């Protein structure tokens, strides 16, 4: 009886242990499932847009912006220091291209990765947002392509269709437009990652959308094949397609989180019946809507002060200068406080932490931004404020025009550079730009065009009075004119259009005017130029002369005509050349697009003994590592190998390769120059097998008498000192290029072995 009781007791104990084990295993399984779900639910927002890189190929620049859960993993973490460093965020996904074929869409494979530079983050809402871009040349196998990125998962707390896959896509059409003669540019937008509405308060959110071609833009619900979302994912919202207005109906018992997937489409200007017109493109836009339980009046929302930039404001900032502003917020309900001022910023923008001025009752963040060369053009910056009850201000967006001194500026420095707007991409239509260079009486101005391609009809340069268009059939569409003295009453001395090899113009007075006019039809790559002011004119140049007293209409120079629709030859584009002319130019292969990997290029400039060579870099951006140094040192001696070990440009003189490395450069640098102290200069360009950037463009001039007052680095073949003569702030290799370049210049003892 006792043994039976013991056996029964053991059986009961075993059953109890088994049940406990089963419960533990079940809880562990559920915990792992929950952890898996929460770790996978990190997608918040995305959009991808595109524009043609030029007017003559199928090369597009694709720009994307995405937001993910900040705490998802270390690769998605972001703070101001990471923004400043420019370090890439993301998990290594891929953009996939598919083209239209007989069976629907056929896959072409991976065209880029999805890593992005962080621009904004929210600690309170737990997201990281950033952007990046890539250039891709599409095959001519099809005119229609879809570029997409998909993965898992949306946030698990969605009211409808939680944990679903995301899919962000854009439809590309490579057909040339009849009105502009080039490939379309898609609509662009900069929405927040999260939009908040208050339950019971009818509200609306205007989708910030612009179109580079001034097309009509329509915003609609995305279908499942475009977004992996059902069209009823946000059942309490209505979209005004023409106004791009998302309206919340304000019903009660609607609190929760919803995924919104929209498609932005552009149509010809004047379109009213969208069903009868074929769209130019389609762009996917996705974000979250959170409806919060209302506390207080529907009107108790944060308000911006007058010191804050106005919605729709347009301002300008030049390369090398800072955009500065302040976002100030006041609250109507003083029992609340501002928890965040949320932004959607361009790369590299710096914002101070949220601060409070208790005396004035305002909350604010200061903004500082030095745009980089590659950000020339229109940049959107948007922001909003959120208070402790979850109420939000309006979403304000401003446009910052970067580098648009390229459509007019008054230069007074002794050296400078100018480009057509949007260079090295197609310039806008309907321009009338004017640059003026003013020097001291007795000085002379030399203007060097290193690349030149604008629309033209035959391509002539001529003298003639301003307003007298006896040669109006030549260069009557888009053109550049160069004057001197008192514009516009002075004579037109030079007018140019079409594709021209590098050329230059010299003044015979202390003033030069450059005017750039474009029409409303075609546009091309444009031009880049630099100027130098001399007290004593260089000897032996081959420049066109501006004589302020000339009155003849003699044709000075005529270059071979090419069809306006023809593809221009790549400027230089070679990987090495032996120059013997007194002027010339060189670029990294494939410039202005990304250079190839695994290069080892060598250019040599040889002049007459007694001559001096000046090499001017007008644009320079190659892969770098840590600080970007230029230095003297023996060739093959890499005491500074941690600086510029990947892609770099080296300058030598005399007998390469036995001569000394005098200058090495990498990273992003603003315009700079190098001068020889002998009649030979070697330029070597080396790249590795990983990343590539836009590269460089440069021009050189040979002088018998060196110009006075230049600010160029000197190549002294006999130097032996190790003195560092200049150093500027360093940047990281992964960072976006700073607006004020990091040049560190040094000398290393030539006897170091």
Automatic annotation (TrEMBL):
PANTHER family: OVOCHYMASE-RELATED (PTHR24251). It comes from the Eukaryota. PROSITE patterns: CUB. SUPFAM superfamilies: Spermadhesin, CUB domain. This is Tolloid-like protein 2. InterPro entries: CUB_dom (IPR000859), Sperma_CUB_dom_sf (IPR035914). Keywords: Disulfide bond, Repeat. It comes from Acropora cervicornis. Residues 407-534, 575-703 form the CUB domain. Transmembrane segments: none annotated.
């Amino acid at each position: 009886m006792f043994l039976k009781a013991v056996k029964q007791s053991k059986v009961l104990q075993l059953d109890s242990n088994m049940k406990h084990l089963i419960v533990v295993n079940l809880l562990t399984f559920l915990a792992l499932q929950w952890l898996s779900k929460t770790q996978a639910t990190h997608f918040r927002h995305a959009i991808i847009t595109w524009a043609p890189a030029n007017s003559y190929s199928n090369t597009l620049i694709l720009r994307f912006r995405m937001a993910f859960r900040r705490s998802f993993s270390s690769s998605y973490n972001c703070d101001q220091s990471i923004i400043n460093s420019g370090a890439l965020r993301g998990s290594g996904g891929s953009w996939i291209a598919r083209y239209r074929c007989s069976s629907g869409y056929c896959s072409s494979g991976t065209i880029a990765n999805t890593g992005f530079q962080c621009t904004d983050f929210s600690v309170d809402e737990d997201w990281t947002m950033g952007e990046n871009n890539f250039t891709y040349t599409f095959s001519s196998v099809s005119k229609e392509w879809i570029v997409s990125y998909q993965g898992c998962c949306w946030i698990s707390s969605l009211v409808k269709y939680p944990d679903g896959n995301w899919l962000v896509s854009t439809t590309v059409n490579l057909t040339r437009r009849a009105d502009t003669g080039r490939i379309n540019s898609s609509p662009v937008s900069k929405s927040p990652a999260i939009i908040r509405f208050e339950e019971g308060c009818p509200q609306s959110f205007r989708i910030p959308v612009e179109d580079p071609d001034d097309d009509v833009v329509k915003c609609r619900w995305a279908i499942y094949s475009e977004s992996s979302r059902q069209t009823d994912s946000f059942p309490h919202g209505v979209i005004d397609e023409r106004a791009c207005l998302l309206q919340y109906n304000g019903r009660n018992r609607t609190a929760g989180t919803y995924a919104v997937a929209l498609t932005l489409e552009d149509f010809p200007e004047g379109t009213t019946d969208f069903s009868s017109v074929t769209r130019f493109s389609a762009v996917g836009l996705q974000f979250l809507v959170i409806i919060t339980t209302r506390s207080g009046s529907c009107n108790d929302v944060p308000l911006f002060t007058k010191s804050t930039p106005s919605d729709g404001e347009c301002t300008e900032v030049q390369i090398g200068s800072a955009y500065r502003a302040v976002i100030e917020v006041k609250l109507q309900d003083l029992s609340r406080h501002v928890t965040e001022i949320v932004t959607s910023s361009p790369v590299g923008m710096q914002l101070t932490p949220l601060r409070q001025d208790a005396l004035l009752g305002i909350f604010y963040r200061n903004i500082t931004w030095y745009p980089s060369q590659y950000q020339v053009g229109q940049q959107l910056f948007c922001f909003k404020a959120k208070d402790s009850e979850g109420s939000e201000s309006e979403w304000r967006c401003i446009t910052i025009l970067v580098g648009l001194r390229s459509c007019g500026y008054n230069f007074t420095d002794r050296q400078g550079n100018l480009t057509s707007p949007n260079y090295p991409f197609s310039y806008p239509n309907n321009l009338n730009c004017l640059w003026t260079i003013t020097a001291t009486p007795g000085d002379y101005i030399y203007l060097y065009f290193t690349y030149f391609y604008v629309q033209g009809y035959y391509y002539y340069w001529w003298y003639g009075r301003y307003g007298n268009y006896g040669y109006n059939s030549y260069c009557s569409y888009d053109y550049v004119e160069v004057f001197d003295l008192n514009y516009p009453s002075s004579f037109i001395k030079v007018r140019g259009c079409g594709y021209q090899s590098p050329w230059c113009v010299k003044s015979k007075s202390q003033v030069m005017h450059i005017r750039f006019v474009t029409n409303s039809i075609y546009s091309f790559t444009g031009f880049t130029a630099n100027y130098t002011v001399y007290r004593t004119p260089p000897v032996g140049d081959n420049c066109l002369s501006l004589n302020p007293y000339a009155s003849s209409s003699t044709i000075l120079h005529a270059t071979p005509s090419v069809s306006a629709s023809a593809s221009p030859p790549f400027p230089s584009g070679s990987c090495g050349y032996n120059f013997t002319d007194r002027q010339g130019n060189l670029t990294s292969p494939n410039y202005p697009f990304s250079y190839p990997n695994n290069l080892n290029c060598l250019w040599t400039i040889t002049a007459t003994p007694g001559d001096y060579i000046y090499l001017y870099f007008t644009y320079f951006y190659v892969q770098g590592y840590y600080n970007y140094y230029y230095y003297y040192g023996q060739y093959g001696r890499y005491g500074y190998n941690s600086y510029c070990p990947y892609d770099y440009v080296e300058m030598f003189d005399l007998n390469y390769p036995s001569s000394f490395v005098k200058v090495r450069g990498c990273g992003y640098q603003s315009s700079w120059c190098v001068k020889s102290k002998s009649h030979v200069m070697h330029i070597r360009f080396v790249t590795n097998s990983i990343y590539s950037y836009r590269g460089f463009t440069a021009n050189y001039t040979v002088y018998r008498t060196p110009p006075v007052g230049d600010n160029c680095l000197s190549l002294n073949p006999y130097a032996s000192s190790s003195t560092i003569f200049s150093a500027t702030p360093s940047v990281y290799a992964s960072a976006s290029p700073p607006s004020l370049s990091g040049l560190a210049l040094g000398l290393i003892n030539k006897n170091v072995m």
